[in-house]
Design goal:
Helix content is about 60%, strand content about 5%. The protein is mainly alpha-helical. It folds into 2 domains: about 45 residues, no CATH class; about 120 residues, no CATH class. Strands 1-2 form a two-stranded antiparallel sheet. Strands 3-4 form a two-stranded antiparallel sheet. About 15% of the residues are buried.
Length: about 180
Amino acid sequence: MVNHISTKTLELTAHQAKIVPAIHIRIKRLSVSGNTITLKQLALFPARITTFLYLNQSRMMKIGLMAMVFITALYTKKYTGEYQQIIQYHIGGIFYVLFGSLVISLAFPKVKMFLPVIMATGMTCMLEWIQWFQFPFMTGLTRMKVFAYIFGTSYDTADFIYYGIGAALAFIVLWIIREN
């Protein structure tokens, strides 16, 4: 008994990324040395990148961005150099909103993109107003350096501008790495 195999062309796909047979054409490698490689060799590296991009990797990208944003926000508190006052006292607000938006979008992946941004911006603005009221529990809490970095120590109206910038940046970032 002979099994019949369809004569249709088989096409392997990885979430809309077509994997095509390698053709042995020599092309210039984008390097200073000018070495040549075959398309088969070249296809091995980009295939991993395309697979990564076409798979739903937004969660991993958000976690990676959160780590970078967190480290950068901490660095702004210790920065010394040109524009030290602005970077130490205001730029962190941009990163706080971005970090909060990423956390909320991870916690609630099915909500619209603007909702995590609005929630994170609202929370940072609320913290700024709490600083204005100088509640005794917050004053005692922010005597520890860790909480002073997280919650801030003084009210400044200019921080709301940086929260707005952070909100715009967070929306752009969430739009770029949105889940498909």
